[in-house]
Amino acid sequence: MKTVPAIINLSEDLYLSLASIGLTKDKIVSESRKLLALMYFKKNILSLGKATELSGLSKWNFIEYLSQNNVPIINYDDDEIDRELEIAEEIINKLKL
Q: What is the mean pLDDT of the chain?
């Protein structure tokens, strides 16, 4: 798959502040990718698969990262929940026959 580089420019002072707490350039990139993925997944801009790809993590590690940051994997609105419950009720009623 072809890739496109995305670069963040940091002021030297900002980079030195981050470096002083042990963040390397690679770690800053890694953390930035995870945070972007989390934000775009939370805002429903990226699917779980695409957000996982952006994060650079495995699918299960990204799901764990979402959980650690209190971001639900499934985010139904009230109408979607009602529809799911109606379907479940229909299935239960058919099984009773």
A: 93
